[in-house]
Write a structure and sequence with these properties.
This is Secretion protein. It is built from one helix and 22 strands. The chain has 273 residues and is an all-beta fold. The N and C termini lie close together (9 Å).
Amino acid sequence: MKSTTFLTICSLLISIFSFGQTSTESFETESNGSTSFTDNGVIFNIISYVSVFDIQANFPATGWNGTTFDNRYIDNSNDMASPPSFGIKTTSNLFKVNRFWMYLSALNLDLNVTGSLTVTGKLSGITKFTQTKTNGFVTSLGSTNGYTLIDLTNLNGQNYSNIVIDELQITANGGFRYVALDAFTWVKDSNIVLGTTESKASQKNMSIYPNPTTGPLSIKAENSSEAQIYSQDGKLLQSLQIKKGMNEISISDYPKGVYFIKTANGSSKVIKK
């Protein structure tokens, strides 16, 4: 029997007014060797899993901003352990990824090698999508300075640009030992980002039980308000009118997963087990 556990947590909605804004980071204002970058008010951390990745600014005109050469990008030129793997992660806002450009080559920067690229989107450590691209890579400098477009609106025939994540992980395999990323186009998502500590205000304004549940919920509210139920990937699933006093609803039709109930007075995190 499936059940749902409810945790009442902080009512602060960090990004509720951060409506979807598309931005392209070309890294031109970032410092050489930095392991983070800031774009559209959001700080991203560059996480090195295998090999060392940071901002590269020592080789002018070796990047690609999507239309012309530029000077700075993320790469692993300081350490080329294999298979190269890194993440772009933020804890301040959720985001979606549209596209980015990648230089993928052998250690001597030869583009004419065979390899693959795995792109993974994660939210709170949970994989939301993963795909491996095995062909269609640029094999010469050509018109894009050697960079291949990785388009998440059509990656292996699937659209991943509408999936909310907090980390994009990229792993190169095969002959790809040197990896560079530029022109990172992303969307600041308008979905809620919740605090991690329980607040007395949210306890007072709304309580939810039983905990766990197989679907039926009782919501006791101090005041009348509107409420919305979101899935973990940020999709609005249901709108509710919460009245002062006791309210009875059911989420028995929802699959197992993590859900959020957002109200004007507080937020509750729903964990199905």
